[in-house]
Design a protein that fits this description.
The protein has 14 helices and 13 strands. The chain has helices at about 20-25, 40-50, 65-75, 90, 95-100, 120-125, 155-170, 180-190, 190-195, 220-235, 245-255, 260-275, 305-315, 335-355; strands spanning about 5-10, 55-60, 80-85, 105-110, 135-145, 175-180, 200-205, 215-220, 280, 290-295, 315, 320, 325-330. It catalyses: L-allo-threonine = acetaldehyde + glycine; L-threonine = acetaldehyde + glycine.
Amino acid sequence: MVTRTKVDLRSDTVTKPTESMRAAMANAEVDDDVLTYDPTAFRLEAEMAKITGKEAALFVPSGTMGNLISVLVHCDVRGSEVILGDNSHIHMYENGGISTIGGVHPRTVKNNPDGTMDIDLIEAAIRDPRGELVYPTTRLICLENSQANCGGRCLSVEYTDRVGEIAAKHGLKLHVDGARIFNASVALGVPVHRLVEAADSVSVCLSKGLGAPVGSVIVGSKSFISKARRLRKTLGGGMRQVGILCAAALVALQENITKLEADHKKAKMFAEGLNQIKGLKVDVNTVETNIVYFDIVEGSKIKAETLFKNLEEHGVFLMPESSSRIRIVLHHQISTSDVQYTLSCFQQALTGVQEENGI
Ligand SMILES: Cc1ncc(COP(=O)(O)O)c(C=O)c1O
Ligand SMILES: C[C@@H](O)[C@H](N)C(=O)O
């Protein structure tokens, strides 16, 4: 088998800036974004506020910082508690920052396989104010759309609105970790602004499926963004000529939103192809966006680390989830021929092992 150039399926965070992004970066109009407004940052923030239907926006270095700032702005009183998914990125992959840095107490509710949390369990997790002597105070509910660890599953606008109603009923705020909100919007056929209408704040990653090299944007009310700007500086996220990065993000918005549907089709194609390979299993119906989780079937005589080594030798790179569960993430720099090549590498790896074991 002829090894091709690298097929990097570890994440949609691995994309390289395109030539048009690099040209925009080189020619970006910039200023000191801490002392005044960097004009290109201002353009990006205005565009993101418009797309999401919120009053204002703020460029931040990462999605992790975007979520941290959002939670800390909403939970700015000691003893605050946030309700979030037990399989959410904020809870699983952000070093517990809301607690270690922000002193905010997490109260997890089980994420269902479809990425939602049961509405009645969310409501049951809200602290009874009558117990204020002993309870933390619930101030915020966090959703994640699409839900990455559940396989890039999309939360419907109806579900998001319903959670928003629960938050409003109890005087709480709603934050959406919208790292891949554009993927959810495209998959559902619902405009981003409608999908997040019920949210008080959203953190949107520019550096994932949109393919920008760096950054996220948080959106919300003018008051929220004003507090967020100050907290960004506190956390060291205030940057100077940040327009260089924002210029690439503006190109990403112009060029890559329309490519997301193709990413989703490649993910479906990959899942359907994997299911044709003896020893691998994936529920194709759960593949809604650009993320595919699949399992090595028990008895297939190959371990994930063996499979990875074999694949890496053929230029294919993945992210291990466990010894038998694997994740691949599609993005605009993976072609359909890359998908077909990768499937052939999987087939070759599995067949080789099965022949060695007389299966
Ligand atoms: C759902 C989700 N939220 C937030 C983040 C954090 O983004 P960043 O890596 O830019 O900190 C990620 C992944 O990176 C993610 O997948
Ligand atoms: C691993 C995780 O932090 C990252 N957000 C990803 O999806 O690749």
